[in-house]
């Protein structure tokens, strides 16, 4: 039996960090994906490989003990939790391929988790609907990370654009013009650390930081209305405001801000951190000047152009 599934990466357009405090957020699937392939094996161990990040692990399929490990353990925690709850104890070979690096705030762990759960169901000739898949994948993220909003796993499951408000996931069908340029720092983002930094700031200055979080929520609500009305030019301006607010609560860095301003100076309509910040990625929204913005960012950092993707999880 050979089962293959893939799921998209995502960018957060508005509302990161504030979403942890029950404010709304908007995220969108992009045309970069994580692909998971599962085959049966005659070996005694379950073999997990992701050549893109130099990961090779052999796992005891009954005890889940790691018998051999090459590369960083990080993503294995998600894979092991998925295997524990969605597979029997037979050895299998799992091959993962990634189109963007792990840990840059583009949701690779959620994409891998969603694709792996889908591929395992297919392997066992079982059907799982998207609502259950999204929920199960979020449960895995919660187990591994301790805290996580359902945003990443919902976008990786459903694709398209998601508005998350009061734990409700609304699927938006925008006809967005233009494209997003993503640029990222060599150092990965540390979501747990940045979420706890914001929590400490909020405890220290409850009125000030509380108001900033409320304002990020209002920016997101306004952006949601504009996106639905197709007023994309104003989106850029709101992205800039959102970035300034994120900067004010300490989740930018001089390098991220440099990237954000380089993109704006090269003609982006708007640019901001995407994801947890501290390090990791920025996004720049362009209707015109895409190549100029891309080349400007590329001259100093890793950068690529990306499009929205309607596709969520796919069984191949
Ligand atoms: O960097 P990412 O993709 O893990 O995004 C983090 C977004 C936060 O709002 C900071 C945390 C969360 O769980 O929503």
UniProtKB/TrEMBL annotation:
Enzyme Commission number(s) from the entry: 2.7.1.36
Active site: 152
Known catalytic reactions: (R)-mevalonate + ATP = (R)-5-phosphomevalonate + ADP + H(+)
Coiled coil: none
Pfam families the UniProt entry points to: GHMP_kinases_C, GHMP_kinases_N
Family from the record: Belongs to the GHMP kinase family. Mevalonate kinase subfamily.
Name this polypeptide is given: Mevalonate kinase
């Amino acid at each position: 039996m050979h089962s293959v599934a893939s799921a998209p990466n995502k960018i957060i357009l508005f509302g990161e960090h504030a979403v942890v405090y029950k404010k709304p957020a908007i995220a969108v699937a992009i045309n970069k994906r994580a692909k998971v392939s599962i085959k049966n094996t005659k070996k005694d161990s379950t073999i997990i490989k992701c050549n893109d990040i130099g990961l090779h692990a052999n796992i005891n399929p009954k005890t889940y003990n790691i018998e051999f490990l090459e590369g960083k353990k990080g993503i294995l925690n998600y894979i092991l939790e998925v295997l524990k709850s969605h597979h029997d104890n037979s050895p299998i070979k799992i091959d993962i391929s990634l189109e963007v690096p792990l840990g840059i705030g583009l949701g690779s762990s959620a994409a891998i988790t969603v694709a792996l759960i889908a591929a395992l169901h297919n392997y066992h000739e079982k059907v799982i609907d998207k609502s259950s898949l999204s929920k199960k994948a979020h449960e895995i993220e919660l187990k591994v990370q301790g805290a996580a909003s359902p945003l990443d796993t919902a976008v990786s499951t459903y694709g398209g654009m998601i508005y998350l408000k009061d734990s409700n996931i609304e699927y938006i069908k925008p006809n967005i013009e233009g494209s997003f340029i993503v640029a990222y720092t060599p150092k990965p983002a540390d979501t747990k650390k940045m979420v706890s930094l914001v929590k400490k700031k909020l405890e220290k200055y409850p009125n000030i930081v509380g108001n900033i979080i409320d304002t990020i929520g209002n920016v997101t609500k306004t952006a949601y209305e504009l996106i639905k009305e197709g007023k994309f030019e104003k989106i850029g301006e709101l992205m800039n405001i959102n970035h300034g607010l994120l900067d004010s609560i300490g989740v930018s860095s001089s390098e991220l801000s440099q990237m954000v301003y380089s993109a704006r100076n090269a003609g982006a309509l708007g640019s901001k951190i995407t994801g947890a910040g501290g390090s990791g990625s920025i996004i720049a929204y362009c209707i015109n000047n895409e190549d100029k913005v891309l080349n400007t960012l590329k001259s100093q950092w890793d950068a690529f152009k990306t499009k929205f993707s309607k596709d969520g999880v796919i069984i191949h």
